[in-house]
Amino acid sequence: MRRYSAFAIVREALRHHSGWERAWTAPAPKPCYDVIIVGAGGHGLATAYYLGKIHKITNVAVIEKGWLGGGNTGRNTTIIRSNYLQDPSAAIYEKARALYETLSQDLNYNVMFSPRGVIMLAQTEHEVRGYRRTAHANALQGVQTAFISPERVRELCPIIALDGPRYPVLGGLWQARGGTARHDAVAWGYARACSAMGMDIIQQCAVTGIRSRNGQVTGVETTQGAIACARLGIVVAGHSGVLADMAGFRLPIESVALQALVSEPIKPCMDVVVMANTVHGYMSQSDKGEMVIGGGADGYNTYAQRGSFHHIEDTVRALIETFPMISRLKMLRHWGGIVDMTGDRSPIISKTPLGNCFINCGWGTGGFKAIPGSGWAMAELMARGTSDLAGPFALDRFRAGRFIDESVAAGVAH
Amino acid sequence: MLILRCPYCGVHADETELTPGGEAHLTRPGPGASDDDFEGYLFRRRNPRGVHFERWCHTCGCGKWFHAARCTVTHQVFGTYSAQTTEPPGAIIAAIRARRPDWTPT
Ligand SMILES: Cc1cc2nc3c(=O)[nH]c(=O)nc-3n(C[C@H](O)[C@H](O)[C@H](O)COP(=O)(O)OP(=O)(O)OC[C@H]3O[C@@H](n4cnc5c(N)ncnc54)[C@H](O)[C@@H]3O)c2cc1C
Ligand SMILES: [Zn+2]
Prior knowledge:
heterodimer; A: alpha/beta; FAD/NAD(P)-binding domain; D-Amino Acid Oxidase, Chain A, domain 2; 2 domains; 8-stranded mixed sheet; 12 helices; 18 strands; 30% helix; B: alpha+beta; Folate-binding fold; 4-stranded antiparallel sheet; two-stranded antiparallel ribbon; binds flavin-adenine dinucleotide; binds zinc ion
């Protein structure tokens, strides 16, 4: 793999861009791999990357039914933060955030991580108390956050109306090193690095069955034929229930639609991310100038990849009160993704009832921020059989009642 | 927009008038049931990509809970029926079979 650099740009400019290589290869599947990962979203690709980089397992295939990054990874609003409440969450989300800081250098691919700061608005007395508690918890966990006053909120984001009649701003939880990254670039950067280590990324290949013998996984059936493997990782977000069904177990997961929309591009007016969880809305401005807006999730099971329009109306109606200047903006695009919700709003990174079959899912409405940390933990679990980061997120926590309750921190916003 | 007919009051209600209540026909295990049974009842869900039996409440109407059979991929509704039952009635099963010959109840 030829490295990207300033020198490479000059070189290619001088020879009419004839020397750029494909970022990743498009191989036909081999008959057998040490590890197969199902799902080339951020979490699947990051798992493969750290299997190779940290654990030196490179006979790996990542199998994707569509195109890589075409699931939730390419549909999300890219908010990155680690201000959760419980210790296991703080550990894995902060690991991920810290890895994001140097991910572009690590992958030699610009993922455009922009630690511009994230404010979670407190718009009810309840939220004020909740976020003060989170700030204290974060201090103990070594995650840098602070509860800030309405005046400080105005300094950081002048376009907010602080004293809206229905949703006044009473303060906020501020994480200065939170922010955004380019979603596609995260998937592409990991894919390129995996391909460079000799891994096969196989797109347009759906897994249709899982093979096993004596309770141990032996391979998968796909639309490009059967492929054998010693270990299998299922990392398919909203489709986890479908894959679990193939493997013969059920998950504590329901799939629902989550939506987002973007406006026409405008001049820079907001250089932080603002989340307003009471009204299920959040907003940031992309480098192109579009206002990127995320909404609420539907309450019913769906795989339709489009949500109910009344959620968009609710979100926009509430956001206009907090940001009056967006009321004249035209919205350009609006889309949905199928997110995998668990009962405690925390993910599952775990062994499964099928031997040598592992699963990473349940990131629901908020897993983009976790991609590097999740891949790190999943790779460790698959390579070593145990992982301190992944341990608390095991599937058996539901039976044991060891929930990792993040319903406030995760809410519906991110 | 999703529209379901409330089997009690007969209103064709759109989803803003309804509250979704998740998978239908879950049976609470009795005293002495295993942890496994209880975990299944509380948490494990079929979450199918296809025909789903589910609970809805006509919140902004008559206020009653009812059941619906709906496809989670196309949102096609096969029928709605009373919540006073532990399994989908024959007419609903027949309506699903007529439109989805490959479908098998699990
Ligand atoms: C509208 C929206 C906004 C969001 N905003 C944020 C945010 O601001 N911040 C944040 O942190 N998170 C956010 N999220 C959540 C985040 O997008 C997800 O948690 C994360 O991207 C999940 O990544 P993944 O790799 O697990 O799944 P995905 O990216 O969905 O990848 C799973 C892949 O598996 C493939 N697959 C499925 N079935 C099969 C099969 N049978 N065979 C082969 N491949 C298969 C799919 O095609 C898909 O490409 C948002 C989500 C949505 C929908
Ligand atoms: Zn009714």
